[in-house]
Amino acid sequence: MNIDYNVSIKGYNTFGIDEIAEQFVVLQATNELRALSEIEERKIIGSGSNILCTQSISALLIANRLKGIEQIKEDEHHVWFEVASGELWHDFVEYAIDKGLAGIENLALIPGTVGAAPIQNIGAYGVEVKNTIESVTFWHWKSKVFKTLANEDCHFGYRDSIFKNELKDTFFITSVCFKLNKQAVLNTSYGAIEEELQQLNIMHPSPKDVAQAVMNIRRSKLPNPAEVGNAGSFFKNPTIPVQQYLDLKKEFASIPAYPIDEQSVKVPAGWLIEQCGWKGFRKDDYGVHEKQALVLVNYGDATGEEIWQLSSDIVASVQEVFGIELEREVQVW
Questions:
Q1: I need a surface site. Which of 138, 174, 266, 310 has the fewest CB within 10 A?
Q2: What is the pLDDT, as a whole number, of residue 191?
Q3: Is 329 a catalytic residue?
Q4: Confidence band (pLDDT; 50, 70, 90) for 209?
Q5: Where in the chain is the domain with CATH 3.30.465.10?
Q6: What stretch of H or E contains 194?
Q7: CA nearest to 292, candidates 217, 215, 193, 188
Q8: Residue 161 annotated among the catalytic residues of the structure
Q9: Which of the residues 22, 159, 194, 206 is marked catalytic?
Q10: What is the dihedral of CA 247, 252, 258, 260, to 10 degrees?
Q11: What is the DSSP letter of 257?
């Protein structure tokens, strides 16, 4: 394990922001974590798909490259896998689908690593990763021991978990245990999945078919980070009280919402941003994607500070028009 100095992170974040990490190390084995515990300030990067860097990084930046997928248990209905945190999430989705297993097909093509999945409780098309996570194992920096949390102890919520709150900055996730289904119970009612399956002329879909439909939809709406710098959805879909939604509907008749419970609904952030006129906006090398208002983009040499300011302008605009405060989904450094 070698620590390098003054390393550009442009190739380590999907926004393509060119900032400098004063110290940088690639982690390939868990036995290297003890030595890294002696360094006081640390940041962790996986595929860099959920990060906006606005300044140079004075902390040690650890690039997670832990690899490995191991089947650890099986019964009549399920198969359990222990997956190293540095594995790319979509690679694991494809691995599961190739084995005919179900549960994560709706999460196909989500960027990022397996280790980031529980932190964010990634979700798409009516499915959240918490539904398949059995446990999460992590290295605790201060006590210098490995710990494992069962699903119920991870405090999963909408794009949320204990790792973003009580345990923030105290851990390094090393692996995640998933429980996948042998018999598929498919969720195709969310978004345009059913419509896409019909386009593909598939009447009785398999998990592989659902994953393909999801990938087709995502590719049609979201820019490829290899071509245009971005971090996917920049904002969370806000949850508001039902009464606030009903009041807004009097003025904005077409405002969409999805019920959460009797007291609250979720409003699509992309719709709010688009109504404020931001969709397709561009200034210099930064802007809002022309097909998806949730996605902020770097067309070439934009700075993290420019994209941060754009996001702040969007937040202020939505607040002014709708009285709703948007929350950023990306980590801002």
A1: 266
A2: 67
A3: yes
A4: very high
A5: 69-181
A6: helix 193-199
A7: 217
A8: no
A9: 159
A10: -20
A11: -
DSSP string, 162-189: GGGTTTTTSEEEEEEEEEEESS------
List, in sequence order, every residue forming a beta bridge with 69; answer none if it has no partner: 83
- Which residues touch 302 (CB under 8 Å, ≥6 apart)? 17, 229, 284, 285, 286
Q: Over the Cα atoms of the chain, what is R_g?
A: 20
Which CATH number applies to 229-332? 3.90.78.10
Q: Pick 4-64's CATH classification: 3.40.630.120, 3.40.50.2300, 3.30.43.10, 3.40.50.1820.
A: 3.30.43.10
Q: How far is CA 243 from CA 21, 236, 238, 260, 265, in A?
A: 47, 20, 14, 13, 10
Instruction: Name the segment(s) of the chain with CATH classification 3.90.78.10.
Output: 229-332
Instruction: Give the tens place of pLDDT for each residue, 302-312.
Output: 999 999 999 99
| pLDDT 10s digits, 41-52 | 899 999 888 899
CA dihedral (143, 155, 187, 126) in degrees, to 10, reads -110
Question: Which tokens go with 6?
Answer: 């003054």
b/e code 85-106 from CB counts within 10 Å (16+ = b):
bbbbbbebbbebbeeebbbbbb
Residues 177, 80: contact at Cβ < 8 Å? yes
Query: 10 Å Cβ neighbour count for 184?
Result: 17
DSSP 135: E
Cα–Cα distances (Å) from 66 to 32, 69, 176, in that order, read 11, 10, 12
Looking at 31-35, 221-225, 314-318, which range is the least confident one? 221-225
Q: Which of 233, 306, 311, 328 is catalytic?
A: 233
**Gap between the terminal Cα atoms of the chain:** 25
CATH topology of domain 69-181: 3.30.465
| Amino acid residing at 85 | S
What are residue 128's DSSP bridge partners?
A: 123
Catalytic entry in 32, 194, 305, 329:
329
